[in-house]
């Protein structure tokens, strides 16, 4: 038996029918040229035989007297036919049908009496493709851990004789973590451990929250300035999923022209899409919407689990001009990164707590949708790989993380860099966000607009960039 | 707002993650000859436009201060894209893949914040067929009500110009209830209402249970003689579904030869299949397993809901000879029916309570799997139609009710008579009954055995029949 860390246990306690705390990912693959008709059957047979989920996914939650106070993992037999599932899309098998199926699968809570994962191999995707969707509980793995797990399943070499399935790759040495924020990660490691210890109980949580709301520089106090938006409502159990692919080259060209980072450009695109969506719904707040941008940290012992801090950045939804929106986002995130790097460890601990503890406390007491929002929407951004990846010779086309929602936070946006493109996934509450796919469509339009705006004023862009550099 | 009846409310209170209280049905259809390629799209489009679920499926549970004590229905908008779903089977699209998909869909609890139903149109069934699966909460409809609803969706005439979908049929006058136990039904109507009043509270339930266990003729005391079997264990959330089709003509021939009812023969077949399964598992109890046979009653006001009594009959699993097994079953059920008909109303009320209240009480207090089993397995038997039925010109091939499990009762068998066949559905707890499909296979073998045993001794069979008639 191995006890869950306090933070992992908190994710378990936050589980409710309306806010199941599992994360997932949807991947689409191209069938290899000349693939045999039973390619998926062979893939499934191999996956069934060889374990491809790391610890603790061969365990279930122990049923002890203390399991609520101090949950622990215990080894169990894996019922592979239960966890590994063969599914199919109805006609015409497009992205719409795939999004619908995955949204339905993602809306069901995991069975907490079994190992906390499911994996679906999905056939019937148009264009000689197939899809893979998995879900796993956030108490056992965080977004970065899930990303690393997927990386271990895949190979850069379609012909690699060792690579005839995820299990072979899983035995290799771990690849590099997807992002190398090494300096910052090192600085934050200790505070995260500290923060984890602080939230052992609801009482401690409440105390920390009160402390954080005192003083001039209180981030909690600042959060009172966050506008309520239609994304900040109680969520129901059902989800919608919208997807879009953007060209990384075009995004980089805009970033270069304005002297911003690709992340800034992506935030500006999200801001543009959200602005148009809210205008249409006649629900655009006067102030800018704020995004929470989580930063994942590797654990000291390398085990999967949760170690997350976040900072809050504006999406510039109050600005009509796409270029001015991008410039605002760039100014704020540049300063935030600088401040984060300069913070003393104790302040960082507070900062780390800010990212989660108000949410944890609010979720567990049911107060979250009634509190003023601490931010409006979660936007996370990771890089999967710059080279094409393969599963048993089938090329990965795109990967979309499918995350979870907190009560009062009905929209989550994930951005995944892969090869020459960025896959954008919108996960929303079915009832709060009726036409979610529009956000996906508008994000493509927002890229067009931003490109036009930047091309119209290239000279000024260069001047700003030069000034920032000196 | 309309309040749920006490019995309907009890089914709502019994809902738990491990024992969701919804019932369902799986139907397979043959595509009409020369059906257009978009037949299912057209069916879905029509179903989307026209309501096909009766009251209260256009309602959701009201969110009031008293909703736990006195739940009520309130009108709501139907989000048809949520409730009506297009699904597909993976290759090869056989009965196995269909059973797996439906078992998975049936394992998920309904979202209690929405109208309590889902309907899946399933494509990809081999042999130019498709399937339909729906689930609905038992607090809103009982098995008989569900059967009548299905009958309203279907037509006996494939060419009926009015019948281009379930909605048109839904506006016609109600057809006859599937079984015409009129004398018995009339007798039981009042006691059922009385029983419903008695179980308004847990305290009343406990009192009734104690009373019922006193006295010489106590059915509860008799229930202490029920053997524990591997079916009588705590259930987990996940289900398995096994299906089989039997020839009604062969069953009738056996019944005729022995002088028993077709229901007796079906019970003997179930007993034979269960005996072989338990022998294989080295878990056959010395005493016979007992089946609870629910009898559904029409409500006085004709609204859907729950009105169920049940009697307990032996399955003869302790007898090796198939013929002797059938004879035992016939003797006991004949006497039970006679006694049921002769009971005074007050005793009938007690009897009606026996069918459910110990289960309701046990389920709500969590004591059910710890109490000695009151019976071993539920076996219900209904007649759908003697003539072929059609949905938008597609012929119904078979219908399998997919029921629910109580804690401690991990197997449920349903038998549906339709045209010249009986569809047998086995619903089991995934963990308690590892090779459920074997029961389906063995039930076909049990019919063969019984047929051989009866053919070997036809003369003696006639003698018994004659004796019983005088």
Question: What report would you give on this structure?
Answer:
- Two copies of one chain form a homodimer.
- With 470 residues, chain A is of the alpha+beta class.
- Chain A has two domains: 2-153, 2-Layer Sandwich (Chloramphenicol Acetyltransferase), CATH 3.30.559; 194-381 and 409-469, 2-Layer Sandwich (Chloramphenicol Acetyltransferase).
- Chain A is built from 15 helices and 15 strands.
- Chain A has helices at 6-13, 39-49, 80-83, 95-107, 143-153, 166-170, 182-198, 202-212, 219-223, 248-258, 262-280, 322-342, 345-365, 436-456, 458-469, and strands at residues 2-3, 22-30, 59-61, 72-75, 84-88, 117-125, 129-137, 239-247, 290-296, 308-314, 377-385, 390-391, 394-402, 411-418, 421-429.
- In chain A, the strands form three sheets. In chain A, strands 5-6-7-2-13-12 form a six-stranded mixed β-sheet, sandwiched between helices.
- In chain A, β14 (411-418) and β15 form a beta hairpin.
- Chain A is globular.
- The first copy, chain A, starts with a strand and ends with a helix.
- At the A-B interface, β5 and α4 of A face β5 and α4 of B.
Helix and strand content put the structural class of chain A at alpha+beta
Fraction in helix of chain A: 40-55%
Beta-strand content of chain A: 15-25%
CATH level 3 topology of the largest domain in chain A: Chloramphenicol Acetyltransferase
Q: Can you summarize the main beta sheet of chain A? A: 6 strands, mixed
Number of strands of chain A: 15
CATH superfamily grouping of the largest domain in chain A? Nonribosomal peptide synthetase, condensation domain
User: What is the succession of H and E elements of chain A?
Assistant: EHEHEEHEHEEHHHHHEHHEEHHEEEEEHH
